[in-house]
Design a protein that fits this description.
The protein is α/β, with parallel strands linked by helices. It has two domains: about 260 residues, Alpha-Beta Horseshoe (pyruvate-formate lyase- activating enzyme); about 90 residues, Arc Repressor Mutant, subunit A, CATH 1.10.10.920. The chain has 17 helices and 15 strands. It has a nine-stranded mixed sheet with strand order 7-8-6-5-4-3-2-1-9. Strands 10-11-12 form a three-stranded antiparallel sheet, with no helix packed on it. Helix 1 crosses helix 10, helix 2 packs parallel to helix 3 and helix 6 runs parallel beside helix 8. The protein is globular and about 60 Å long. The site of iron/sulfur cluster (SF4) has 11 residues, from loops.
Length: about 400
């Protein structure tokens, strides 16, 4: 039985995320669940992830009816390119045998530039990888050294070129902006190099200093000074305007593609509250109302699987208010924005009626458009999407409470 109501979200199917937690070296800004591959850790991963798939297939949605079959699979990390293509193939085979997938799911893979070799590219193509996300982060040697990356700028350029030459359908370049002291001119230079290589997709993130990372320690000791917020905003706006002029259209705050067919088909599932199933240490899953997540550390995760127990650490049931807020925050980060009728049906909130003055002001400032059916951020609005979402009210007409009582969400 498949869940009803998914079509109302404009989402086709479930996404599967596989977390590969290894990195040859841990970057000082990273707060993902990662570890180095030594000490037998690398060897323990494949049997454990295959074991988890075996456990999950018995009741993938933990008592809830299954949503639509999975139509995307994404290997993220960590560094999935540290797995050999044969190992990826084993995981894909287990997913196909054990879980409900469409015939040819869209397949994405994250890779570090130093792992991109003709042999691996041939393997990834053979497996059907359609979206290769390259963790370049910077084309500048000083930037790469600051970020603690192992590859050089020349290796990064070469990785993009050989991936494109190998015929991967979409090659994506990940870049990080707002490094301390970065000027608009130096960031523009990064964008120039990236676009001169002509990848079909770019992801441009802002540097954030996460608690518990070496960068957080450096900041505390006064050895790292983040770029002030206005300067960061200037770089984000520059990214959007500069890339749009060169044919890279944004479809989310950080994501740009030369054509709709080169957009990620997996990440929009997170933005649109579609169901997704996460496998591997720290991976999160979501069924439309409930979110659960795996044990974060590789050792306890693998031990739980070895004991025949699903390695889930905890779960939360999202309240109607949380669902409404998340959909607002995530929707305003995308060019599709928020479809107002659907939002009203799902959450009992008339966003425009509840925020008439704010919407009018955002419209006058050139940040938001309202065509009667959708609230959409403009290019300038995308650059301040989070602040814009925070300025909107969900409770002006008390509608969320009535949504709670009426339970008009997709799982009702
Ligand atoms: S390569 Fe990526 S996942 Fe690995 S440590 Fe660096 S930032 Fe984190």
């Amino acid at each position: 039985m498949h869940l009803p109501g998914r079509s109302a979200l404009g989402v086709d199917g479930t996404g599967i995320y596989v977390h590969v937690p290894f990195c040859s070296k841990i970057c000082p800004y990273c707060d993902f669940a990662v570890t180095t591959p030594g000490g037998g850790r690398r060897r323990s991963y494949l049997p454990a992830i295959l074991g988890e798939i075996g456990l999950v297939c018995r009741d993938a949605w933990r008592g809830a009816p299954p949503p639509a079959p999975a139509d995307t699979i994404y290997f993220g990390g960590g560094t999935p390119s540290l797995l050999e293509p044969d190992e990826l193939e084993e995981i894909l085979g287990a997913l196909a045998r054990r879980l409900d997938l469409v015939a040819e799911p869209w397949l994405g893979l994250e890779a570090n530039p130093e792992d991109v070799t003709p042999r691996r590219l041939a393997g990834w193509r053979r497996l059907g990888v359609r979206f290769l996300s390259l963790g370049v982060q910077s084309f500048d040697e000083d930037g790469l050294a600051f970020l603690g990356r192992r590859h050089t700028a020349a290796e990064a350029r070469n990785a993009v070129a050989v991936a494109l030459a190998a015929g991967i359908e979409t090659v994506s370049v990940d870049l990080i902006c707002a490094l301390p002291g970065q000027s608009p001119a130096s960031w523009r230079r990064e964008l120039e190099i990236a676009t001169s290589l002509a990848p079909q997709h770019l992801s441009c993130y802002q540097l954030t200093v996460e608690p518990g990372t070496p960068f957080a320690v450096m900041r505390r000791r006064g050895r790292l000074r983040e770029l002030p917020e206005p300067a960061q905003g200037e770089l984000v706006l520059l990214t959007h305007t500069w890339l749009a002029e060169r044919g890279y259209q944004p479809y989310e705050v950080c994501s740009f593609a030369v054509a709709p067919e080169h957009r990620s088909r997996h990440n929009p599932k997170y933005w649109r509250h579609a169901p997704y199933l996460g496998l591997g240490p720290s991976a999160h899953s979501f069924d439309g109302q409930r979110r659960w997540w795996n044990l974060r550390q590789l050792g306890p995760w693998a031990e739980a699987v070895a004991r025949g127990r699903r390695p889930v650490e905890d779960e939360e049931l999202l309240t109607p208010m949380q669902l409404a807020l998340e959909e607002l925050m995530l929707g305003l980060r995308t060019v599709e924005g928020i479809e107002l009728d659907g939002y009203r049906r799902r959450h009992g909130v008339d966003l425009v009626a509840a925020n008439r003055a704010t919407c009018a002001a955002l419209g006058r400032d050139g940040l938001l458009t309202d065509d009667g059916g959708r609230l959409r951020p403009t290019t300038a609005g995308l650059a301040v999407a989070d602040a814009m979402a925070r300025s909107l009210d969900l409770e002006a007409d008390g509608a969320v409470e009535s949504a709670e009582a009426g339970s008009s969400g997709p799982r009702a």
